[in-house]
Specification:
There is one protein chain. This protein has five helices and eleven strands, in the order H-E-E-E-E-E-H-E-E-E-E-E-E-H-H-H. The chain has 216 residues and is α+β, with helices and mostly antiparallel strands. The chain is elongated, with a radius of gyration of 27 Å.
Length: 216
C-alpha cells in the first residue's frame, strides 16, 4: 500500500511537471511572437503634439462644444460654444492628451456597409482638431467593443475611400473625456476668483517694486 501510494504521488508530480512545462513552452516560446505582433499593431492615433492644438470642436447629437486656446499660453483655454466663457483647463487637457498621445489598439479593414456594426454610420460624436497652420483633423467615435475597453473610431472618415475603410479601436477614455456635464467644462467660480486674486497680487507687487525703485 505505501508503495502504491508513493507511485501514485510520483505519477501526479510527473504529470504536473509535464503540464507546467507545456504551459511554459506554449506561453513563453510559442506565444511570444503573437504577443509581440499584438504589441506592434498599436499605433498613435495622430502624429501631432499637444501644444500644436489651437482649437477643438466636439460635435454630438445634443450639442456642439468649441474650445480655443488663448494666444497667451498662460491663460489656458476659452469655451466659444455653446457659450463664451473660461474653460476648465483640466477637462480640456485630458482630451488633448488623448488626442496627442492616444494609441489605437488595432486597425480593422472594413467596407461602407459594415460601418453600422461599429456605430460609425452615424457617429455618437466627432472631434475636430485644428492645429497651427490651420491643419484640421477629425476623429469619429462609434460604439464600444464587446467588453467596453475600446471604442470603434475613424480618422478623417470623409477622406477615406468607401471600398478601403480603416476602423480603429481607440481607448474608452475618449467616451469619458467628452461626455461631461457643462459644469465640468467651465472653469469654476473658485478657480476664477483665485486667478483674479493671483493677478491682483502680482500687480500689487509690481507696483510696490516700481515705487521702491523710484524712491531709491
Amino acid at each position: 500500500m505505501p508503495i502504491l501510494k508513493l507511485q501514485r504521488t510520483t505519477l501526479i508530480l510527473f504529470i504536473s511537471a509535464i503540464l507546467l512545462g507545456s504551459f511554459v513552452y506554449f506561453y513563453e516560446i510559442k506565444g511570444a511572437p503573437q504577443r509581440e505582433a499584438a504589441k506592434s499593431t498599436k499605433q498613435p492615433i495622430f502624429a501631432f503634439e499637444e501644444n500644436e492644438i489651437q482649437s477643438v470642436i466636439i460635435y454630438t447629437d445634443d450639442e456642439t462644444l468649441q474650445f480655443d486656446r488663448f494666444s497667451n499660453p498662460e491663460l489656458g483655454w476659452q469655451m466659444k460654444k455653446p457659450k463664451n466663457t473660461l474653460a476648465n483647463d483640466a477637462a480640456v487637457s485630458f482630451l488633448l492628451n488623448l488626442l496627442a498621445k492616444g494609441e489605437s489598439d488595432r486597425t480593422i479593414s472594413a467596407t461602407a456597409d459594415k460601418l453600422k456594426e461599429y456605430g460609425l454610420d452615424q457617429p455618437s460624436a466627432t472631434i475636430e482638431v485644428e492645429l497651427e497652420g490651420e491643419k484640421v483633423y477629425k476623429l469619429a467615435l462609434g460604439k464600444p467593443d464587446f467588453n467596453e475597453s475600446f471604442l470603434y473610431a475613424q480618422v478623417d472618415p470623409s477622406k477615406q475611400k468607401s471600398e478601403e475603410l480603416s476602423v480603429l479601436l481607440v481607448p474608452i477614455d475618449f467616451k469619458y473625456a467628452i461626455n461631461r456635464p457643462m459644469s465640468e467644462w467651465e472653469e469654476s467660480k473658485e478657480d476664477t476668483e483665485d486667478s483674479e486674486e493671483s493677478t491682483t497680487d502680482e500687480e500689487s507687487l509690481d507696483t510696490e517694486k516700481e515705487s521702491s525703485d523710484t524712491e531709491e
